[in-house]
Amino acid sequence: MNDLYTKTVLSIIAAALLALVAQNAIHPSLAQLFNDPQKVQICDNSGLCAGVLRGQYGYALAVVNKP
User: Fold this and answer.
1) What is the pLDDT of residue 14?
2) How many CA atoms lie within 13 A of 67 on its CB side?
3) How many CA atoms lie within 13 A of 22 on its CB side?
4) Do residues 49 and 42 touch, judged by C-beta distance below 8 A?
């Protein structure tokens, strides 16, 4: 009895995984259709935001005051 239950549950999981693979193979997700990255800005409640600065040795994160 226990073996039949285990086989049934594993078969259902395998079928669901195959359905997900087939769905992604047929229709690409919405995020894959656009090549441009999504730009975000991280700020706190007081108006201080994180910014990326280009310096002599590469890029660095800095806190800047941007409303």
Assistant:
1) 96
2) 0
3) 6
4) yes
Q: pLDDT value at position 11?
A: 96
Would you state the torsion angle of the CA atoms of residues 24, 29, 32, 38, taken in this order, to the nearest 10 degrees?
-150
Q: The pTM is what?
A: 0.40
| Size of the chain in residues | 67
Q: Which residues of the chain have pLDDT under 50?
A: none
Nearest Cα to 50, choosing from 59, 39, 41? 41
Q: For the chain, which residues make up each domain, given as ranges?
A: 2-65
Q: Which two tokens stand for residue 64?
A: 């800047």
